[in-house]
C-alpha cells in the first residue's frame, strides 16, 4: 500500500469517526464516547501500516475479517485507568466509544475493500 492510499484511508476513516461523534457532548459519558472515538481514530492512523501488512492479499471477505480482528485487538489492548479528573461515567463512555468505533471500522472496511457490485 503506497503513501497516498494510506492517506486516503486515514482521511476516509476520520470522516466516518467525525460523523459519529456527538457535536453537543453535554455529559461526562458523551464526552467519554467522543474521546473513545478519537483514540480509535489515532490508533488506526498510527497502526495502519502494520494492519495492512499483517493481512495477506486474499479474498476480500477474509481480508475484511482479518483487518477487523486486528483493529479490535488493538483497541482491546488499550489499558485505561481512572485518572483524578476522569469520572466513572467518562471512562464508561470511552469504552462505549471503542465499541462504537469497532462497528464504524467494520462498515468502513467493508465499503473500502469489497468489490463494487455492478
Question: Could you explain the architecture of this structure?
Answer:
There is one protein chain. This protein is mostly helical. Helices cover 73% and strands 0% of the residues. The chain has helices at residues 3-19, 28-53, 60-76, 88-113. The longest helix is centred in the middle third of the chain and has 26 residues, at 28-53.
Radius of gyration: 15 Å
Taken in chain order, the helices and strands follow as: HHHH
**What would you call the shape?**
elongated
**Secondary-structure-derived class:** mainly alpha
| Number of contiguous helices | 4
How far apart are the first and last residues' alpha carbons, in Å? 25 Å
Oligomer: single chain
Total DSSP E strands: 0
Helices, strands, pairings?
Blueprint: H1 3-19, H2 28-53, H3 60-76, H4 88-113
Question: Which key phrases capture this entry?
Answer:
118 residues, mainly alpha, 4 helices, 73% helix
Summarize the structure.
This protein is mainly α. The protein is 73% helix and 0% strand.
Amino acid at each position: 500500500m503506497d503513501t497516498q492510499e494510506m492517506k486516503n484511508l486515514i482521511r476516509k476513516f476520520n470522516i466516518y469517526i467525525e460523523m459519529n461523534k456527538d457535536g453537543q457532548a453535554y455529559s461526562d459519558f458523551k464526552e467519554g464516547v467522543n474521546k473513545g472515538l478519537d483514540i480509535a481514530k489515532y490508533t488506526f492512523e498510527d497502526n495502519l501500516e502494520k494492519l495492512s501488512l499483517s493481512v495477506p492479499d486474499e479474498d476480500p471477505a477474509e481480508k475484511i475479517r482479518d483487518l477487523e480482528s486486528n483493529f479490535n485487538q488493538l483497541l482491546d489492548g488499550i489499558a485505561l485507568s481512572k485518572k483524578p479528573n476522569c469520572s466513572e461515567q467518562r471512562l464508561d463512555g470511552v469504552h462505549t466509544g471503542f465499541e462504537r468505533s469497532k462497528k464504524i471500522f467494520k462498515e468502513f472496511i467493508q465499503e473500502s475493500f469489497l468489490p463494487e457490485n455492478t
